[in-house]
Amino acid sequence: MATAVPATAASQTQLRVDSAFPIGQSYDKWELLLVDDGSIDGSSETSRRYAERDPRRVRYLSHPGHQNRGMSASRNLGLSQANGQLIAFLDSDDVWFLQKLERHLRSRGRL
Q1: Statement: the pTM of the whole predicted model exceeds 0.85
Q2: In 3D, which of 52, 74, 102, 83 has the Cα closest to residue 5?
Q3: In this predicted model, what pLDDT tens digit does every residue of 39-79 receive, in sequence order?
Q4: Domain 2-107, what fold?
Q5: Rounded CA gap, 25 and 97, in Å?
């Protein structure tokens, strides 16, 4: 499973990774792709720190030249780098519970 997360504001990035995408998911075969869409508010540094903590599963991605290219281009960048067979997007207004991935995969007959 791969998850692309466009980075916006540092506080939103922190919230999204800590609570919106709980690192302690009950299904542990996931990767988190933090896509930086040209942020200028500290989101890049926050996202890089998360990637450094768990480089096997969390990666920081940015557009060439740190450009702001919009949500579609950011999702496409995440998709182009994803290793998972299933893709899930986590937008700024989404919250995932600890069992989200496990329940989703089980309901689709993938577990």
Answers
A1: no
A2: 74
A3: 888 788 888 988 999 899 989 999 999 999 988 898 899 99
A4: Spore Coat Polysaccharide Biosynthesis Protein SpsA; Chain A (3.90.550)
A5: 8
